[in-house]
């Protein structure tokens, strides 16, 4: 073969190689942009966003998303509208979900130090007389554990101290840990129902009174689901507070998740929820999450409206998960809310927010007992990734640290 031909072949091969490597690089990252698919899943597939003007598509990133450290992410406040976001924002990469509670345990330790340390100190006294048992009981009640679980725990500890003694600090620690874990109940199913069905997305509805952190929780949860490589769509059925839809869309934009919202203020929340589920089915996403307006549990009309939202959604798809968001700092008041909401919409999981700001970690046990519904997620701060799947053992370990 002439030398010229040989050079030509080598040059062509080099160009092909460079192009191949470059393409592979560009295709790395998330499996697909959310709401869009590289190939159609069925014959009726529509491109994302073609289902109606109400779907606010997230702004496309200007360049492939670099790994943005979540710690550098600007915090989203409740009044930060989408207009204030920089144009063509780059998508953020949410923090991994595994081990989040362990990562955030310092927050729990800080706020619930008195509970764990106090109990350990009391149980390690040389003599544990009636006064000490009274103090132990008081500590538990102050942490919002509730009367019945407190009696149960004190009863079990009394029995064990009588039989096993309380001289060895490690033994006291292990004994208390065992009894607390039993109360928090590791056997409850805390899995979030976010698995897509063969023909439709999983539907998650989020409910609760005003200001408990519903919108923030949906924003954080969208990040959790994106981190698990799920395609998510948000429905802004909180049409009561004008800024709520923008707040939700902003959370979505940050991780490339689209939001369905009303074009007009005060629209019917049930129809927004319906449209969101319709868009979710059309776009074949994995999960649709519906935000609802905060409402007091004693406002009958508003509670009826919540029931209606769920019924309307269920004309297209059953609601897989109804998450009741409770603010841990409101203590026993949360129990009343939980009861009424449960009667109206059959709550399937609790999200306990603001646990970073209260010493009343015992509310976890009280709520689960009252409702028979597990705490599935806990909010431990205002940061975008400060939401953790709840884990009974990790929680108790954090209390006793
Ligand atoms: N410290 C702390 N603050 C939180 C947490 N979760 C939410 N918040 C804050 O609680 C405030 C209210 O949050 P929102 O998400 O607007 O509450 P909402 O329930 O949607 O409010 P309405 O729509 O008015 O009912 C915001 O300032 C959040 O940053 C948490 O886990 N810890």
UniProtKB/TrEMBL annotation:
GO MF annotation, one: GTP binding
Principal place of residence: membrane
Gene3D superfamilies assigned: P-loop containing nucleotide triphosphate hydrolases (3.40.50.300), Signal recognition particle SRP54, nucleotide-binding domain (1.20.120.140)
Membrane topology: Peripheral membrane protein
Compartments, record wording: Cell membrane; Cytoplasm
InterPro entries to which the protein is assigned, alphabetical: AAA+_ATPase, P-loop_NTPase, Signal_recog_particl_SRP54_hlx, SR_rcpt_FtsY, SRP/SRP_N, SRP54_GTPase_dom, SRP54_N_sf
Binding positions for GTP per the UniProt entry: 208-215, 291-295, 353-356
Keywords, in A-Z order: Cell membrane, Cytoplasm, GTP-binding, Hydrolase, Membrane, Nucleotide-binding, Receptor, Transmembrane, Transmembrane helix
EC numbers for this chain: 3.6.5.4
Biased composition (Low complexity): 54-71
Highest taxon above the source species: Bacteria
Catalytic activity: GTP + H2O = GDP + phosphate + H(+)
Transmembrane segments: 6-27
Any GO BP annotation: SRP-dependent cotranslational protein targeting to membrane
Family in the record: Belongs to the GTP-binding SRP family. FtsY subfamily.
Quaternary structure and interacting proteins, as annotated: Part of the signal recognition particle protein translocation system, which is composed of SRP and FtsY.
PANTHER family named among the record's database cross-references: SIGNAL RECOGNITION PARTICLE RECEPTOR SUBUNIT ALPHA
Name by which UniProt lists this protein: Signal recognition particle receptor FtsY
Organism: Zafaria cholistanensis
């Amino acid at each position: 073969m002439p030398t010229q031909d040989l050079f030509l072949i080598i040059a062509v091969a080099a160009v092909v190689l460079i192009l191949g490597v470059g393409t592979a690089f560009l295709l790395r990252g998330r499996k697909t942009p959310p709401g869009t698919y590289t190939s159609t899943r069925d014959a009726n597939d529509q491109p994302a966003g073609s289902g109606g003007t109400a779907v606010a598509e997230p702004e496309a990133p200007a360049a492939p998303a670099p790994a943005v450290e979540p710690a550098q992410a600007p915090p989203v406040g409740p009044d930060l509208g989408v207009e204030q976001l920089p144009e063509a924002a780059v998508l953020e990469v949410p923090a991994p979900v595994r081990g989040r509670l362990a990562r955030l345990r310092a927050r729990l330790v800080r706020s619930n130090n008195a509970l764990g340390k106090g109990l350990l100190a009391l149980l390690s006294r040389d003599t544990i007389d009636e006064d000490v048992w009274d103090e132990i009981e008081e500590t538990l009640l102050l942490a919002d554990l509730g009367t019945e679980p407190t009696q149960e725990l004190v009863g079990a500890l009394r029995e064990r101290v009588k039989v096993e003694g309380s001289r060895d600090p490690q033994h006291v620690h292990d004994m208390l840990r065992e009894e607390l874990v039993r109360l928090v109940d590791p056997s409850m199913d805390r899995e979030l129902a976010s698995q897509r069905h063969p023909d439709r997305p999983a539907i998650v509805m989020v409910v609760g009174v005003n200001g408990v952190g519903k919108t923030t929780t949906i924003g954080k949860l969208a990040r959790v689901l994106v981190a698990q490589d799920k395609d998510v769509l948000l429905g802004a059925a909180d049409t009561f507070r004008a800024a709520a839809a923008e707040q939700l869309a902003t959370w979505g934009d940050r991780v490339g998740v689209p939001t369905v919202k009303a074009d007009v203020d005060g629209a019917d929340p049930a129809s927004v929820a319906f449209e969101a589920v319709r868009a979710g089915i059309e776009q074949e996403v994995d999960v649709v999450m519906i935000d609802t307006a905060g409402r007091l549990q004693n406002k009958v009309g508003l509670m009826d409206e919540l029931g209606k939202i769920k019924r309307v959604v269920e004309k297209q798809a059953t609601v897989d998960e109804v998450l009741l968001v409770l603010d841990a700092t409101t203590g026993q008041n949360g129990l009343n809310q939980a009861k009424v909401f449960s009667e109206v919409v059959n709550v399937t999981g609790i999200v306990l927010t603001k646990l970073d700001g209260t010493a009343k970690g015992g509310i976890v046990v009280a709520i689960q007992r009252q409702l028979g519904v597990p705490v599935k997620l806990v909010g431990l701060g205002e940061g975008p990734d400060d939401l953790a799947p709840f884990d009974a053992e990790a929680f108790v370990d954090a209390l006793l640290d």
